[in-house]
Design a protein that fits this description.
The chain is built from 6 helices and 18 strands. It is of the alpha+beta class. The strands form 3 sheets. Strands 1, 2, 3, 4, 9, 11, 12, 14, 17 and 18 form a 10-stranded mixed beta sheet that branches. Strands 8, 10, 13, 15 and 16 form a 5-stranded antiparallel beta sheet that branches. β17 and β18 form a beta hairpin. α3 runs antiparallel to α4. The relative contact order is 0.16.
Length: 359
């Protein structure tokens, strides 16, 4: 029954009256982004022109993209995606009655509101006003106003960064009541949880633009080993936190990205990498590779490249991609792992022939 009647009524009514757009407007206050330095991107609440307090919104802090945008982390698991939508606290009983009853009245009076659409609106009114329910979905008497302050109605929220509109608008069940301190009914699998917040923090996470140190720097010679390394001081853990707060309900999750390896791709097949795989693992002290120093010219670098052909009048595009191990912790001791993330930087390298001097 849940998959038919409730979803049909919810889809028809929300598209005509509520719409999840109300719940997903960005309303971000942009602030600078830092690598776990406390920078934040906030989603503010507030009142609309009806005087009703807006839906509880997710707040992001830590190393996150500006203006609520998607961060720069690429998941190593191509099948993994952040949640396209979810259910979250929306309005208290009195505010919900004010909002929903007005929307239903406007929708019912719209031209051509007959057939299935008109029936859906009528059934929705019965559901919230006359205690009409079905299967695992109880009805409400007068929009539950007798319980105002004791809980909230929850409703679907779109992920504004989800490109697939069908996925983004798939949380179409009618708004439902949740008592303060209680978990949402189990049939709402997309109800907001610490794990969903962790995935959203992952989606918004901004990793630092870390440029690999090279020696020789910028310009090297054919058959001359180029050393590559990253100091621990510029290569550290990054954290992003997502939280949601509403009367009687609060959750948060922090996603942590820990650097584990650096992969070098020379930008040409005419090159050798060290190690041969091009994958430089992290050292015990948190650095990667080893800085070049005088006296090491005849040694093979633990992390680096030897170019075998000149770049001519151009440059080679060296790509340095860092792999980050990602885990999360959240409210109530929840936690776990998320797919590794990667982020790469490009660096132009000029490779010259070694000039011989004839005497």
């Amino acid at each position: 029954m849940r998959g038919s009647l409730r979803t049909f009524i919810g889809t028809a009514t929300l598209s005509l009256a509520l719409s999840t757009v109300v719940l997903s407007e960005a309303a971000y206050a942009a602030k600078p982004v830092g690598s776990d330095k406390g920078a934040t991107t906030e989603q503010s609440g507030g009142s609309d022109d009806t005087g009703i307090y807006a839906a509880a919104r997710i707040q992001y802090s830590g190393s996150v993209a500006k203006n609520g945008g998607t961060g720069n982390v690429t998941s190593s698991d191509v099948t993994w995606t952040p949640p396209p939508c979810w259910y979250a606290p929306y309005l208290g009983a009195k505010d919900f009655k004010k909002k929903m009853s007005k929307d239903l009245e406007n929708a019912a009076s719209a031209p051509g509101m007959t057939g299935h659409a008109g029936a859906a609106i009528g059934e929705t009114k019965r559901h919230y006003e006359d205690d009409y329910g079905w299967a695992d979905t109880p009805g409400y008497k007068d929009y539950n106003v007798e319980k105002d302050g004791e809980g909230m109605f929850w409703a679907g929220v779109e992920n504004p960064n989800e490109p697939d509109i069908l996925k983004r608008t798939s949380c179409t069940d009618l708004p439902f009541w949740v008592d303060n301190g209680e978990a949402p009914p189990p049939q709402y699998e997309e109800a907001i949880t610490p794990e969903i917040l962790a995935a959203l923090a992952y989606q918004h996470m901004q990793l630092p633009d870390t440029e690999v140190s090279l020696k020789p720097e910028g310009t090297t010679k054919v058959n001359l080993p180029t050393w590559a390394w990253l100091d621990k001081a510029v290569f550290d853990e990054v954290r992003a936190t997502a939280s949601i707060n509403a009367p009687g309900f609060a959750l948060q999750a922090t996603t942590t990205a820990k650097p584990v390896s650096l992969k070098l791709e020379p930008g040409t097949d005419d090159a050798e990498t060290y190690p041969a795989s091009g994958e430089c693992t992290i050292n015990a002290d948190g650095s990667i590779g080893e800085p070049y120093a005088q006296g090491k010219a005849d040694r093979t670098p633990p992390c680096g490249i030897t170019y075998l052909r000149s770049s001519g009048n151009g440059t080679y595009n060296l790509q340095a991609t860092i792999t980050w191990e990602i885990a999360w912790t959240g409210t109530g001791g929840a936690g776990g792992d998320l797919p590794d993330g990667t982020f790469g930087n490009d660096q132009a390298v000029t490779v010259q022939e070694i000039q011989a001097i004839n005497r």
